Amino acid sequence: MAKILLHKENLFHNLNLILKQAGKIQKVAIVLKDNAYGHGIIEISSLLKEFGIKKAVVKNFKEALKIKDYFDYILVLSNKNFNNFHHNFHFALNCFELIKDLPNNINVHIKVDTGMHRNGILPEQLEDTFFKLVEKNINITGVFTHHKNADNILSKDFEQQNLLFSKIKEEVKKICKRFSIKLPAFHSCNSSALFRHKSIEDDFVRVGIATYGYLETNSKTLPNLKPIMSLWANKVSSRILKKGESVGYGGTYTSKKDISISTYDIGYGDGFLRLNENQHYTTPKGFKVLGRVSMDFLTLNSNEEEVCIFDNVKNLAKIHNTISYEIITTLSKDIRREITK
Amino acid sequence: MAKILLHKENLFHNLNLILKQAGKIQKVAIVLKDNAYGHGIIEISSLLKEFGIKKAVVKNFKEALKIKDYFDYILVLSNKNFNNFHHNFHFALNCFELIKDLPNNINVHIKVDTGMHRNGILPEQLEDTFFKLVEKNINITGVFTHHKNADNILSKDFEQQNLLFSKIKEEVKKICKRFSIKLPAFHSCNSSALFRHKSIEDDFVRVGIATYGYLETNSKTLPNLKPIMSLWANKVSSRILKKGESVGYGGTYTSKKDISISTYDIGYGDGFLRLNENQHYTTPKGFKVLGRVSMDFLTLNSNEEEVCIFDNVKNLAKIHNTISYEIITTLSKDIRREITK
């Protein structure tokens, strides 16, 4: 059976880099959405708890329920089924129109659209939003935004969004004074933004991809993050592929000499994105994927019982014309996760 | 919440085409591996049972256990944890060397490599394989092979593999007579092969992708299969994107005029493969994906509450330079499945 190894030392190494940048552990919220970016939400939560992380960010209520015992504070980013099930749950308000659907006494983080133009209320709706939420007896526990381009140091979007968010913070402070309500927590940094700031003024940062050892940015001064996931597959069957013989669907790989090949139990049905004959991938030990990856198998010029398919997905992301996030996040939940040192 | 609709009428339509081609229902085994190619293994199993299908094919023991109450006969294709848990389970033997690991009294289908050179014993190992299995008191209930190129009518692989498999069948008949054992079931057809044969001589066919409404072949006479899955997403948030404003990561879509846009709750974290700004996709109703698909969201020039993202994945497969199989199979199990007429 294929398996995913989670390298604890690498995770703790990344967390220490994040912690150093954020300033203190109370300022660190780790993003665990989409099965912790494919790593395994329970396994990663247990390790984060061991490290001392108190805050987590997830996509929906279902994910929040899974990890409720691991964290003191959980922010749910994209849910329309708001509820006050747990006092530690906080729900993002992504749209002014959704206020009418909120139950009383819920914890809400107001998302403000500072330039990404995807989710969030408009800056000019800020006061109205506070008014309507206070009227409904809703606890406004956070105000936040999201960067559209923090990974691109050549763009001015980052500075512009920061400037706008600073103004929003000032306005929120005034509004809170007027309504005599507690100041909410402010947050705006994703992984790239965290490592671009000299110091963090916000109350906390939301760190996803850097936790897992990647950062998609064109900055030349990158933190020394280490991927924490490696993917391993097991041999199903071996044979000699004779000179002139082909292997797999379409027979797209033909051998120029007699070689020893084996089939391994991983394929795109497991979320390992399909490689075809035009995409050439080599494993960390130098084995080549021969021909097409099929739904449940791939073939390598190897005879080993167990093979590391990747311990870093940067090359795969390049081959697939995508980002590291997609390669790791699509991996099936059914693959066994194992924590190692 | 995003959802997957499963169109029962389309499934039954496809099954009728398959049944007509196979000859009788006892000759039809439906492949349900990888969560029924992403459709939902339980939902599809319940519909297949209603239709009257008796045989199923899965990848591993875990999948077999899930559907054991729906079928009379389950073939497990890729397992190394062989066991005799259930008298209706049959395990593929993918390699001669694995015989030593087989427990007694297990049901085994011998896979023979007739040219794909991926899994299976070699043709010259056939007699030895029978000898060793009989010696271990193992029930040889099937002998089968897999086509490497049945979807390519320009290649001669299909005929060559058929010819070799015919010879293997003759040899098996002689061996069984000699050992005084019951003749195993023969099977070799996948979806493409099924629709290339005039009539089916084998004992049954293993139909995967055609069940779900697709066939990846260059034949000009295609059966009229209908996709049974459609993917739907829900609106999270709406706004006006003003002339000159951009949306999403990198701001890669910039509007030439004021337009109404909305964000919907589906992304590559749900297994809907990532589209970037160079890949242009339009939904069945004509809405365009604006900019990049992110982990949990995509943006459309729509204001509708619920939008059909696809009801046929052929275009998406083309855009992603892959096959329909991958687009449907990678969809997350966490997306709700609903059966509709």
UniProtKB/TrEMBL annotation, chains A, B:
N6-(pyridoxal phosphate)lysine carried by residues: 33
List of residues binding substrate: 118, 295
One function term, GO molecular function aspect: alanine racemase activity
Name assigned to this protein: Alanine racemase
InterPro entries, per the entry: Ala_racemase, Ala_racemase/Decarboxylase_C, Ala_racemase_C, Ala_racemase_N, PLP-binding_barrel
UniProt enzyme class: isomerase
Superkingdom in the source lineage: Bacteria
Cofactors, names only: pyridoxal 5'-phosphate
Location of the active site: 33 (proton acceptor), 249 (proton acceptor)
Pfam families linked: Ala_racemase_C, Ala_racemase_N
Gene3D superfamilies on file: Alanine racemase, Lyase, Ornithine Decarboxylase, Chain A, domain 1
EC number: 5.1.1.1
Domain Alanine racemase C-terminal: 228-340
Function: Catalyzes the interconversion of L-alanine and D-alanine. May also act on other amino acids.
PANTHER family: ALANINE RACEMASE (PTHR30511), ALANINE RACEMASE, CATABOLIC-RELATED (PTHR30511:SF0)
One GO BP annotation of this record: D-alanine biosynthetic process
Annotated coiled-coil segments of the chain: none
Sequence similarity: Belongs to the alanine racemase family.
Any one GO cellular component localisation term in the record: cytosol
Pathway recorded for this protein: Amino-acid biosynthesis; D-alanine biosynthesis; D-alanine from L-alanine: step 1/1
